[in-house]
Amino acid sequence: MKAWQVEGLLRRRRRQTALAAYIFFGAAWTLFAYWLFEIAITPWASWRIAPVLEFAPFCLFLFLTAFQSALQNYQIRTRRLATAWEYLTTSEQFWPS
Q: Which segments cross the bilayer (predicted)?
């Protein structure tokens, strides 16, 4: 495989991870807003609030998946295996591109 082919694959993967990060992040915020709405309208009875509280892990899962895609995008951008903490504390562009 030639160097220019590898560069093309990296560019394509970078676009894919950026798109995935934005999609998962948007879905997470949408579901989080829906979850807050459900909490606001659900009466506080133990048998009725349990399904609402069981929905929270799905929101967390989507936020974590978005973060994972953004971290992968950062690793491709910098061309090194960076930790999550390095990504969070970087002075470079935070959002995937």
A: 19-37, 49-71
